[in-house]
Amino acid sequence: MSKTNVQQVPDKYFTLSQQSEAEENIQDTQPVSLSFYRDSWRRIKKNKGAVVSLIILLIILVIAVGSIWFSPHNPDTQQVQYSFLPPKIPGLHINGFNGYAKQAGVWVDVYKEKDVPSSVYFYLGTDQFGRDLLSRLLYGTRISLLIAFSAAFLDLTIGVPYGLISGWLGGKADTIMQRALEIISGVPTLVVVVLMLLIFPPGIPSIIMALALIGWITMARVVRGQTLQIKNQEFILAARVLGQRPVKTVLGHILPNLSSVIIIQTMFTIPEAIFFEAFLSFIGVGMRAPNASLGTLINDGYQTFQFYPHLMWYPALIISLIMIAFNIFADGLRDAFDPKMKG
Amino acid sequence: MSETILSLDDVHVSFDSLNGKVHAVRGVSFDLHYGETLALVGESGSGKSVTCRSIIRLLSKNASIDDGSILYEGKNILAKSQREMRSIRGKEISIIFQDPMTSLNPTMRVSKQIALPMIHHLHLSKHEAMKRAIELLKRVGIPNSEVRYKDYPHQFSGGQRQRIVIAIALACNPKLLIADEPTTALDVTIQAQIIELMKDIQKKNGTSIIFITHDLGVVAKVADRVAVMYAGKIVEIGTAEEIFYLPQHPYTWGLLQSVPTADEADEELYAIPGAPPDLIHPSKGDAFYSRNPYALEADRYYEPPYFQLSPTHFAATWLLDERAPKVEPPPSIQRRYATFYKKHGGKP
Amino acid sequence: MIVTLLLISSVTFLLMQKLPGSPYGNEEKLTNVQKAVMNHQYGLDKPVVVQYLYYMVGVAKGNLGVSLQFGNQPVSKIIATRIGPSVQLGIQALIIGTVVGILFGIISARFQNTWLDTSTSLFAILGGSVPNFVFAVLLQLFFAIDLKWLPIGLWDNGFASSILPSLALAITPMADSARFIRTEMIDVLHSDYIELARSTGVDEWTVAFRYGLRNAVIPLITILGPMVASLLTGSLVVEQIFAVPGIGEQFTKSILSNDYFTIMGLTILYSTLLVIVILIVDILYVLIDPRIRLIGGTRDE
Ligand SMILES: Nc1ncnc2c1ncn2[C@@H]1O[C@H](COP(=O)(O)OP(=O)(O)OP(=O)(O)O)[C@@H](O)[C@H]1O
Ligand SMILES: [Mg+2]
Fold first, then answer.
1. What are the structural domain ranges in chain A?
2. Is B125:B159 a contact under the CB 8 Å cutoff?
3. Which of C193, C195, C200 to mutate to test the interface with B (most CBs of B within 10 A)?
4. Where is the ABC transporter domain (chain B) (predicted)?
5. Positive or negative CA dihedral for A246, A251, A252, A253?
6. I need a labelling partner for A261 at 20 to 30 A (CA). Which of A118, A331, B216, C119 fits?
7. What end-to-end distance do the CA atoms of chain A give, in Å?
8. pLDDT digits (tens, 9 = 90+) for B38-85
9. Which residues share a beta bridge with C286?
10. Residue ranges per structural domain of chain C
11. What is the per-residue pLDDT across B72-118, written as a single tens digit (0 to 9) for each?
12. ipTM exceeding 0.85, yes/no
């Protein structure tokens, strides 16, 4: 019935055993419980999609910021004589990327037609004013990211304190603060943003403000919910009983426990802000010329879309890529922080 | 009576987890006879539920049955396809889970939940199945079943819900019923009623039952035989009387000592010291070694085999080897021995 | 409810007072006298408080003022003529989006962590990530310009005209509901009652559809509000791209031309719509299943 051969056990082992301390300790500590963040990090590293997304985002970020110093052309220089040039990449001889474009069914070297010096390359072509699309794209990406990150940051500064205070105080204060949120969230975000943009002078700060205005509500809700949950846990109760000052308890004990939730929420707000900015610019109430953002670039491209589709595709591709990467990464983060979500 | 309905032999089950492979069941063997109730006891995490779920092959995706065989009426369960398994589940073997509050589908009428398995297995018409469902509700003791069959789960009390769960399990007259802590979530009077109901059903249908529980008091009421599990193994198995009055394994001693009994009310309640064992890196000796006050050096290095004490009684501890030193069991266990010998005679 | 609406209309009104620029498009050509006459005509020369009261009383009576740009039409009439296409698009999009989304969500959950799950989830992420105006242009390019199957735009071809814009609008609710249902369904499929259903021998599809579906779909109503809100947003660009004479297109036009009363009217309309949807969701919540109230309670807190 069993695999152990009784005879093979030496006689000397038949004495009462004194379990040593060390061994018991091993028994006790062996189910290694990694710390929460290390555990989450391990999980996220296993998620290929999230890792790839993170890398893509970092690359885009580095290139967008780096292009402040290394832009192939000046994004604002207009050279009308060079308008609507197709992409031309040195060393690449595929039609569509070598300065040739199809005109009435035949591939024509547009650069020659427009007398562009042979040493001048526009990697992604030029727009209707002869501006280099690649440079504008880099610049636009930078602006879009800047807007999104700033809006997300503002979200944090409004939403987190609001949620913390509401959740921590509880009772009447909480009820009132929640009612206020409810009323505000009854207004379609679209309407809020559009109105804000109509009133404030056009420009990047107004857009950031307008976007922050819609984003903080969700953040406040999420933070409040978590605060309510955490505040009744034993270590918080203990801190309260011991007479720790509320501010210290909130900042020292509750906030750190909220960090994962806040990070995840921020990772979802950023792409949303990118989308909204692009959306506003697309309908014409966002960024004004000569500023560029991914939204205005798409809009510009859309105007001449039938004839020069690449002017729209490149910015559309970049914005989609950023959005997808952010969403996948945020999903991955959420799954990693909250493993029970993924069975 | 003594013919075997279910036979497990050296069953191993493991789970993949982030920290490594969890060896939840490590060589479980037992036989179950027709019409018999076997109680499976042991502390939390000892592998009782996993053992039972392997019998109907309803384990989570990260689980694998690595070794051993499970014969149901002589046929190997482990060799069956999922399709064949589905025709066994609910029809031949039914299972009842612990928590009646979450075991019922909240958005489905209870009668439908009872009727669906019958439509599925017995190919009854909807109408016929519904009629049977109402009868079953009555049989498990739901008053006004002709009216209440239309209700949703939240309209019933916890005890009533567990009765409904039992009705679902009984719908197709299974030969084997696995009850995984069916009474743990209920209060004491309801517990007693549910146990009565199950015994009643067993008497009428001749159902074999595997009854999982923490509660040795419940075991005493229902079980013909008892298997004690520790760290994925059965450490001792025998008739209820043998386990209660002639326990041999120090772990069983510990379990029995931690139950309050009438005649030793003044004695301090005992708790087995130490933490449950690590199932990711199981020790090569006896898993109970580090918590065992009667551990031998042999327990540390060698897995103890089963020592047979009677045709029905087996225990896996080196204490039963002839070379082992004689140890005195704790006083309360010795009193149990005494009770046994007084009743049956035999060695003092 | 009422408070929300009152607040919105008041705030909108006040904001409009601060609006830079003039409502008259051809400003340069107007003399001061002409302006004064027009201001008088529209009541814009009265004190703000009086204007406010006039306006609010009007709103209560269903009078939203007149458009300053589009041939002096009453705003309510503009809305009346334009609401049809928008509502049709919205409803079609919502239906297509949720039905497809639910199916995707179920497939994902049912085959969790397989390639089928990965691809449907990826599809949902694409749908949720690619801005809907990009998607709209893609649809237009492919089905209208290249394949010439469907009209490029305008609203003169009956149902055929509505297909592409509906699809473009549907992508967001589709992605939202697919992701939502996936998570819900995974939860449901791991629940005790589904385990019990499995233990009675029913197969996985029956488990998913007969036992699980309802439990997973009911909570979907909680995101109905946000979904409708994002449809409103989407309608602005989609109607513009497909030249649909709907509310969204009107809103864009009005914003770009500082058309006070129309902007206010539409703002109030949008808010009312959203408030009504939220109200309906609340009512559904209570009606559908008492259990939901419990779940909703624990989920929010
Ligand atoms: N899906 C799973 N993944 C990983 N480990 C699991 C899984 N299910 C069970 N286990 C592990 O298997 C071991 C045995 O679990 P099981 O549920 O059988 O215990 P049990 O004896 O039924 O306990 P209880 O009395 O608490 O119900 C536990 O250590 C548990 O952690
Ligand atoms: Mg269990």
1. 55-74+128-341, 86-121
2. no
3. C200
4. 6-256
5. positive
6. C119
7. 37
8. 999 988 888 999 999 999 998 888 889 988 999 998 889 888 888 888
9. none
10. 2-55, 75-288
11. 988 898 888 888 888 899 889 999 988 888 888 888 888 899 999 89
12. no
Which residues of chain B have a CB within 8 Å of the CB of C220? none
Provide the β-strand partners of residue C183.
none
Phi, psi of A262 (to 5 degrees): -65, -45
> Quick one: tokens of C111?
């085959």
The whole-angstrom distance between residue A199's C-alpha and the CA centroid of its chain comes to 28
- CB-based contact, A6 to chain B, within 8 Å: yes
* DSSP type of residue A140: H
Homologous superfamily of C75-288: MetI-like (1.10.3720.10)
- Please report, in angstroms and rounded to a whole number, the separation of the first and last CA atoms in chain C: 22
What φ, ψ does residue B2 adopt, rounded to 5°?
Answer: -95, 5
Q: Is B41 in the pocket of ligand 1 (CB under 6 A)?
A: no
What's the CA angle centered on C280, arms C277 and C286, to 5 degrees?
A: 145
Q: Where are the domains of chain B?
A: 240-343
What is the Å distance from ligand 1's center to B254 Cα?
21
pLDDT tens column, B196-244: 888 888 888 889 999 998 888 888 888 999 999 998 899 999 998 889 8
Q: How big is chain B, counted in residues?
A: 348
Which of the ligands is closest to the CA of residue B214? Answer: 1
Query: A302: which chain C residues are within 8 Å (Cβ-Cβ)?
Result: 137, 241
Neighbours of A195 (CB within 10 A): 24
Q: Give the ligand 1 atom nearest the CA of B98.
A: 27
Residues of C in contact with A324 (CB under 8 A): 125-126, 129-130
B28 in contact with C, Cβ within 8 Å: no
pTM to 2 decimal places? 0.79
**How many angstroms separate the CA atoms of B254 and B270, rounded?**
7
Asked whether B15 lines ligand 1 (CB < 6 A), one says yes
| Residues A40-48: contacts with CB under 8 Å, at least 24 apart | A40/A260, A40/A333, A40/A336, A40/A337, A41/A336, A42/B18, A43/A335, A43/A336, A43/A339, A43/B18, A44/A332, A44/A333, A44/A335, A44/A336, A47/A332, A47/A335, A47/A336
B256's CB contacts (< 8 A; 6+ apart) are B216, B244, B247, B332, B333, B336
CB distance A73 to A132 below 8 Å:
yes
Q: Give the C-alpha separation, C78 to C68, whole Å.
A: 12
Compute CA distances A264 → A183, A219, C121, C296, whole Å.
25, 10, 19, 22
Where does B58-186 show beta strands of DSSP type E? 63-72, 75-76, 93-96, 176-180
pLDDT tens readout for residues A209-263: 888 887 888 888 888 888 888 877 777 777 777 777 777 777 777 787 788 888 8
Pocket flag, ligand 1, residue B48 (CB < 6 Å): yes
Interface mutation target, options C184, C199, C207, chain B, most CBs of B under 10 Å: C199
Nearest to A17 among B19, B281, B295 (CB): B295
Ligand with minimal distance to B229 CA: 1
Please judge whether B321 and A19 are an interchain contact, meaning their C-beta atoms are less than 8 angstroms apart: no
CA-to-CA dists, residue A222 to A73, A163, A226, C175, angstroms: 44, 7, 6, 22
The reply to whether ligand 1 has any atom less than 6 angstroms from the CB of B60 is yes
- For B47, list phi and psi in degrees, rounded to 5: 105, 15
Q: How far is CA C227 from the centre of its chain?
A: 6
How many CB atoms are closer than 10 A to CB C202? 21
> Out of C200, C210, C290, whose CB is closest to B154?
C290
